[in-house]
Amino acid sequence: MVVEIIRYHIPPESSEHFVQAYKEAGDYLKSSEHCLSYEVIRGVEEPNHFIVRIEWDSVEGHMQGFRTSPDFQHFFALVKPYFSAILEMKHYRMIEREV
User: Fold this and answer.
1) What is the pTM of this model?
2) Domain-by-domain residue ranges, the chain?
């Protein structure tokens, strides 16, 4: 399993549309066999900062599986307007997790 972290800086006037876009885009993540879970979180001290955290079965599952699927085309159409607001988009491996 790998975790994709996408950090965004969203202007206040776009934040409601951004949240709505990810609510709709989440349907395409949920339908992917490669997506294990995802979450969208918003900064408390800096409410214009958002983090999207997506757990994938593997980097290959994300890059060659989801990104080459029809679901990705729909997903990307929804989030593409916010692409220029990305501060970071990388994959990470879990070291330790306590639940």
Assistant:
1) 0.94
2) 2-93
